[in-house]
Amino acid sequence: MNLLNVKVVTVVLLSALLLGVLYCYISQTHRFVSFQLQDLKADSRSAEVHPDSHEFHLVAPEHVRYKQPSITQGRTDVVSVTPWLAPIVWEGTFNPVLLDSIYKPQNISIAATVFAVGKYIMFLKNFLETAEQHFFVGFKVHIYVFTDRPKEVPQVKMATDRQLTVHSVPSSNRWQEISARRMELIQMLIEETVHSNTDYIFCLDVDSQFHGRWGTESLGGLVAVIHPGYYRDDRSRFPYERRPQSRAYVAPGEGDFYYCGGAFGGLMHEVHLLTKTCRFNFEADAKENIEAAWQEESHLNRYMWLNKPSKVLSPEYLWQDFKSRNPEIHIIRFSGVVKNYAEIRPNA
Ligand code: UDP
Ligand code: MN
Asked: Is 324 helix (H, G, I), strand (E, B) or coil?
């Protein structure tokens, strides 16, 4: 071999080596990237329970027309954003036509849970009938009724795309237990319906009725409702659990708002985490013979203090029928009916 040939062979061999190294490097990187992606999918709770979340991707259909939003004018009598920049939903802060046109093409489905145990079955008919008129009208809705009296569940005519499922639950002679066990049963329901393609879930008190629209403006990752009884008060007056021994404890000077146990919701996996945590803390407290001041509502308040809701609903979303309407309440959408506690609860 002459010198030229040796040089050519060396160059060829070196190039081949270089290409080989380059190939190994690239395929390695590619494997690494796809491994990471797979890992993410397997790891993320949202992928497991809810494959595609619509919440942060709001596509408006072309040519939808609505009132021009103003940047300088709007509600000034109420606060419509939290210090962590979550919207607080009041009448006049959103455009229902726009919101519905965004969510409609996404074909979302919404579950709602309602418990009617013992004499509370009497509230179910009105709840269901008014839900039919105001709760996510035009969307896919699945209402889950939990009761110990399945035969007494009223027949209410529901629109196409809306359905009702009845789950039997044991009765109890303590209302505190009925109310608190909801967390456990909702947790289990979410686990059972993981593959049902449900996007959002709302958990509502049965002793209540709808009076106005409750729709897509309420959708969010984790959604809490401000309790109508305390929203003008200083936080020192909020009826949080105040004994440090309880896992629902909120210290003086802490807490954002007082949220109600009678309505909360969000994406399925968020509500799953909430109910699982509240149930765990409630049961751990019970083992130490401590029951929080307002049972699951106290645990919910503790949870929402640490895990900030991504959307907060104003007291329009759970008023009380016996309360007169305050001036900032332009519409009552959902409210608790007047009831005689002594007559309907199993224990006073
Ligand atoms: N509940 C029930 N049967 C009972 C007590 C409570 O089904 O005997 C359920 C029902 O869904 C009710 C919720 O638990 O709306 C919360 O209880 P309640 O409405 O009495 O609490 P309040 O709103 O008065 O604080
Ligand atoms: Mn209630």
From this structure: coil
